[in-house]
Specification:
The structure holds 3 protein chains of 3 kinds. Chain B is of the alpha/beta class. Chain B has 11 helices and 11 strands. In chain B, the strands form 2 sheets. A 6-stranded mixed sheet of chain B has the order 7-8-9-3-10-11, with helices on both faces. In chain B, strands 1, 2, 4, 5 and 6 form a 5-stranded antiparallel sheet that branches. By secondary structure, chain C is mostly helical. The chains are: A alpha/beta, B alpha/beta, C mainly alpha. The complex binds adenosine-5'-triphosphate (ATP) (2 copies) and magnesium ion (2 copies).
Chain lengths: ~250, ~280, ~300
Amino acid sequence: MSAIDINALNVWFGEGDDRNHAVKNVSLKIAKGESFGLVGESGSGKSTVLRTLVGLVDDWDGRMEVDGKVLGRKRDGAFYKTVQMVFQDPYASLHPRMTVDQVLSEVLKLHGFKDVNDRVNRLLEQVGLGGGFRFRYPHQLSGGQRQRVAIARALAPEPRILLLDEPTSALDVSVQAEILNLLTDLRAEFGLTYLMVSHDLGVIGHMCERIAVMQFGEIVEELDVENMRKLSATHAYTKHLLESSLGSVR
Amino acid sequence: MSHLLDVENLWVKFPTRNGVFDAVRGISFSLGRERLGIVGESGSGKSMTGRAVLQLIRKPGRVEADRMEMNGTDLLGASDKAMRKIRGRHISMIMQDPKYSLNPVMTVGQQIIEALRTHEKVSQAEARKRALEMLDAVAIRDPERVMGLYPHEVSGGMGQRIMIAMMLIPNPEILIADEPTSALDVSVQLQVLEIMDKLVKDRGMGLIFISHDLNLVSKFCDRVVIMYAGRIVEVCEASKLHEAKHPYTQGLLNSVPDLVHPRPRLEVLTRDPAWREAPSVSALL
Amino acid sequence: MTQPTAKPQETLGWRAWLTADVPASRAQARAAAWFNGWLRFRSNTLAMVGLIILLFIILCAVFAPLLATHDPFVQNLGNRLQPPGADGHIFGTDSLGRDIYSRLLFGARISIYIVLLVALVAPLLGLIVGTIAGYAGGWVDVTLMRFTDIFLAFPRLILALAFVAALGAGIENAVLAISLTAWPPYARIARAETLTIRNSDFIHAVRLQGAGPVRIITRHIWPLCISSLVIRVTLDMAGIILTAAGLGFLGLGAQPPSPEWGAMIAEGRKYILDYWWVATIPGLAIFSISLAFNLLGDGLRDVLDPKEAGR
Ligand SMILES: Nc1ncnc2c1ncn2[C@@H]1O[C@H](COP(=O)(O)OP(=O)(O)OP(=O)(O)O)[C@@H](O)[C@H]1O
Ligand SMILES: Nc1ncnc2c1ncn2[C@@H]1O[C@H](COP(=O)(O)OP(=O)(O)OP(=O)(O)O)[C@@H](O)[C@H]1O
Ligand SMILES: [Mg+2]
Ligand SMILES: [Mg+2]
């Protein structure tokens, strides 16, 4: 049984003439404990796939399964205990008037945990923020620290599957390294499954075992990281993408 | 004078409850008709440097400098009114968080057209045509549709390109780009960089390119300034960035994940307190 | 990124406790946030002036029985229209020989009562309507906003007049009428704020924790709308007092002999040329309370505006 199984997913926005078919016939299978990368052109629908999976988009058809359970229109509490998402922009993903403590306690209460205090401390510990950050407001945190809080929030319900939408693209390289190491450790410790979007192939290569490449709302190619390193792609767009990003390395 | 911009001993100070916080501490640099990269970790004062040039530091922040001139015109003493003229027309800045800088309740098209019409007297139809061209230039597919979208309906990378399109409209002499391509995939990134590159080559625009992507900066820029804690620790030619000597620069370079040579763990920067106290290196031409 | 370390704070005073960089408990964090706001507010001199005037008026209202030199309702026709200072009447007497100073003190109670009631009812109504419309969108939004537009289409005083005429004259009805006319702008503001907030990632993030719309609106959207509403309310206060005074002046608000300031002006109007103080003194009182609220509103804007609250 795979952790995520998406079959022939279609997503569109708008009606009539404005209708934009953002995701076309996308199918993905991600095994338990795997780390899967989604790359592709800007605007090709990567974020939309993740957002549809967690129920933030209404208009879709196709079949989506998480842990063998078919997803309907509405997601329930149990779903959100299994799947959580980290958003791209750490500057926009925290409520400006809530302290770190308020953010985390609310989530824990929503999921019905009793020992909220201990858990908040433990979560902050896990993401490498000391207790000194507990009562800070977002504006008192740097971008990397905010992203850690966002990761802590996603970890709070103890999910098995984490969807990461460009988790480090707004961060500088040294903080990016810290976050990526953190994610690697968390996966090793809890056996998490990652579905990760990034445009930085270096990051994807570091984190993932398999990748899918998207263009114009479709998946044009799926390949594993070894083949990606060897540049043995078949689709023209993948080749172009790999070559230009290897070109930018040297 | 052939430099577009000369800045000497620039300080950006924020009074806080616990004393004055210096975000930028006495840096000097000049900008010719070139691509000047600014790199450094988060909080090192990159954005504040850019904003200080445009006098966009929010109160109670203060900007102090011995000299700050654009083409020989003093920017320090310039009145608010004079600055408003300079902003946009002579110096443009692409802000770091595009979606924050766009108005959430106005469509993308309306905002571009409005920006265009505040700078030039053009008809609505003409403005619309130009806006479409701009969106097309930054590699946005289906610009007609995107014109009618609200900021929350565009993807991360599209938002960034919309911002770039808006800032290029007034044909500035100096462009300050604060992490303009951080949400773009490599191929679109190359296209956007090409536009900027063309402006530098053909029109002699000066570009300050703020980024945390060291590989990109070393490939794209002419000169690179490396900032740490509000000071410049090193200046080098962009192509020689990988031979940089300062341990901080080396640390940054080492923490970049490498597609070709994977490592199980990435190196994390260990900071030396002495870096903070070292005098700022001058980047004047 | 440096790790702040929690310092032991046992020997430090309350000020250090409040300004600590690293609060140790929820209560301390909250207190520190309030204290910070207060520091920012205090540095605004004009706002402090407004606050002091307001506190002064409130104190006058509270201690009116102690401060008053005369009974505000006792008439003395032999002593009518005395100039200020005459005979122990600090502000003189009105056309029925009542002491203006004492009436002013008791009138402050009425004005503050009206202001508080309106300030509670109107913004709350606006907040509820505006955030629901903004968050739900679609036909809910259209219906609620058209409804709001209908209210907005009428001039405020005229609408209030119509309500009072329908409900009958009196302070409570005046308050109700003013509230009913005052809420639409708040609904507008709240909706506009909600529209900019509802698509942000932090709202998506709580949705991903299984939070329902009621929780999202009340816990996550309201706190962000309230600051702009509070500012707007304090700035509107002056207008509300004037509307109340206007209704009083037209005889539709507080009923004689109650010493409502607007009604006092109305009474003094007849004598304004020969006995200026009868209308001018309550006018000055209205002026100063309006001014106080305006100054206060400006100061609150500095404290509450999220952009300013950055650091
Ligand atoms: N709420 C929405 N309403 C209308 N169109 C939308 C909405 N959300 C996304 N889209 C459209 O769907 C397409 C895909 O967007 P998406 O955000 O998934 O791209 P992406 O692959 O994540 O790109 P990027 O790398 O730039 O973030 C875009 O054309 C975008 O305009
Ligand atoms: N209003 C303010 N008051 C006090 N300090 C501030 C204020 N605004 C910014 N700072 C501080 O100034 C420093 C420099 O910030 P700046 O935005 O220039 O960093 P940056 O190099 O652009 O980082 P990033 O890569 O995260 O964008 C930071 O340490 C920040 O905390
Ligand atoms: Mg995206
Ligand atoms: Mg910055």
